[in-house]
Specification:
heterodimer; A: 188 residues; mainly alpha; Rna Polymerase Sigma Factor, Chain: A; Arc Repressor Mutant, subunit A; elongated; B: 340 residues; alpha+beta; Jelly Rolls; Phage tail protein beta-alpha-beta fold; 3 domains; 13-stranded mixed sheet; three-stranded mixed sheet; 18 strands; 32% strand
Chain lengths: 188, 340
């Protein structure tokens, strides 16, 4: 009963085991996905749990057009964006609003989840040249602006721009085959 | 045609929150060229998300969450009584005022016998009330305040009891003074307009006189004749009082729904805003709290006021939404103000 289609049918007929399997499968990835929008782990976990509770309550009527993954990602995205709007935090995080403009076009169908890639990711990060990785991480872990990174590293802002973008571009190249493999697997 | 390097830079600037508005135009242009471009962008965004998890993936406890959610589902199946609970709540809502009203009627009878009937008005948090007193005087009762007054003023005195803040416009009657009693002060007036602040939770109680003349008695000890445009404030903790000349407008504007601040500390500004909109606003940073503000708000929404204040101060807000407690009550919305 591990095929997602079968799991969904089982869920619709009220099978709790199927529900639990789906929950375990997607929970962590969905919380992490929500974290891209709402930087509050407790709230993100609440949101994902509520989405699953709703999924259970509506199991008989729910219509999933594409994949369950796409359905869940969209639900998390909507709830997190809604919560942000509600909290009016968007105004406080101007830099995030920009990225939100592009969230609507997000391709949830082909979206790669964290657990799909986590094993490969660290290895790929370690392959990056030190200076690239450093700039990439300063932005990632310390939330520093390019300007601040440039000041700390005593290089120009342009250099930081180049290093971060190169790091991302290289990650894509390293993981490209894997990306394609995951997508091919998803489509099949 | 832009090179890939340039596009990569634009994309990573966007994702890291470093995109300028001219960059954005360039990026949008490029995205609109083809679906291939959008696909490339989506992959980069996806990769950025995965390489930048907002939380430590190890800190997400899947087992605990699974237990919580399955627990809730099992509970739902067992207790299928939401309708009953709902009706119980409605019944409670109906019964409580009924009891209160019966109490009031019973009270009324005993009090009528003693010839002393009181009316009590409470303005809930976030609400202002206007009361017409039996002698024609008018009272504006601020948010979270309570006023008790006799249904009939008997000859010789016009006594009311206040906790919280109220603005009085007292009908002139030299023979029968109008007395406002609060816990720490009493104000005696004949015909005049004044504002009284006496919230039980505040350390400062104060009276501000707009026109006329009032006698203020503090703590049963000190008697002060207040002149128009004067304000007397008394600090409960230090037991000191302070008499200052002031612009009464800012102290009384609340009665018309106006929030007027004239070089007031930011923590005071937020306290007054919180009172009017029924939210708890806390300013943690001392330096920010003591900054002085001059502003007038009327009819603005809370969000708008917060936004306007943010424009002129290096502050940011962290909102805590209302939480439902076990007994079904909702807590007040909390907003914390931090230095930006």
């Amino acid at each position: 009963m591990n095929n997602e289609h079968d799991l969904l049918s089982a869920l619709k007929s009220g099978n709790k085991e199927a529900f639990t399997l789906l929950f375990r499968k997607y929970y962590k990835d969905l919380v992490l996905f929500g974290g891209n929008i709402l930087h509050d782990q407790v709230r993100c976990e609440d949101i994902v749990q509520n989405i699953f509770l709703k999924l259970w309550a509506d199991r008989e009527n729910i219509i999933i057009e594409k994949s369950l993954k796409s359905f869940l990602l969209r639900s998390v995205q909507n709830s997190c964006l809604d919560e942000l709007r509600h909290k009016q935090v968007i105004r406080d995080h101007e830099q995030f609003t920009q990225t939100f403009d592009y969230f609507d076009s997000l391709d949830t169908e082909n979206y790669i989840l964290y657990s799909d890639l986590e094993d490969k990711l660290d290895a790929a990060m370690n392959k990056l040249p030190d200076t690239y990785r450093e700039a990439f991480r300063m932005n990632r872990f310390d939330g520093l602006k390019y300007k601040e990174i440039a000041e700390q590293l005593k290089v120009s802002e342009r250099t930081v721009e180049v290093r971060v973008s190169k790091a991302l571009g290289m990650l894509r190249v390293y993981l490209k085959d894997f990306f394609i493999a995951v997508i091919a697997w998803l489509v099949s | 045609m832009k090179t890939n390097d340039e596009i990569d830079i634009l994309i990573s600037k966007l994702l890291s929150g470093n995109l300028s508005s001219s960059d954005k135009i360039k990026l949008d242009e490029w995205l609109n060229i083809s679906s291939e471009n959008r696909k490339y962008f989506n992959q980069m965004q996806n990769l950025w998300h995965l390489s930048h998890p907002a939380f430590n993936p190890k800190s997400i406890d899947v087992e605990k969450a699974t237990e919580k959610v399955t627990g809730k589902i099992n509970e739902q199946n067992r207790v299928k009584l939401p309708l009953l609970v709902w009706w119980q709540k409605i019944a409670a809502i109906l019964i409580i005022p009924l009891i209160a009203f019966t109490g009031y009627l019973l009270n009324r009878e005993t009090e009528l016998a003693a010839n002393e009937v009181y009316q009590e008005v409470f303005s809930p948090f976030g609400v202002r009330s206007k009361i017409n007193l039996p002698d024609g005087s008018m009272v504006w009762l601020n948010s979270g305040s309570h006023l008790k007054y006799p249904v009939v003023f008997k000859n010789g005195s016009r006594n009311v009891v206040l906790t919280g803040e109220a603005y009085f416009e007292v009908q002139s009657d030299k023979k029968n003074p109008f007395i406002v009693d609060t816990e720490k002060m009493s104000v005696k007036a004949t015909g005049t307009a004044f504002n009284v602040e006496a919230y039980a939770t505040d350390t400062i109680v104060a009276v501000t006189l707009v026109h006329g003349k009032v006698d203020v008695n503090i703590d049963g000890r000190k008697n002060i004749n207040l002149m128009p445009n004067q304000r007397i404030s008394f600090n409960n903790e230090s037991s000191r009082y302070e008499l200052t000349d002031t612009d009464p407008y800012k102290w009384c504007a609340w009665k018309d729904g106006i929030l007027a601040f004239r070089d007031d500390r930011l923590d005071y500004v937020f306290k007054k805003i919180g009172l009017m909109y029924n939210v708890d606003i806390a300013v943690t940073n001392k330096e920010i709290a003591s900054q002085l503000y001059r502003a007038t708000f009327q009819g603005e929404s809370l969000e708008e006021i917060l936004r306007l204040l943010k424009l002129s101060a290096p502050i940011r807000y962290v909102h805590t939404p209302r939480v439902r407690s076990a007994n079904g009550d909702f807590s007040k919305e909390k907003i914390e103000v931090f230095k930006n």
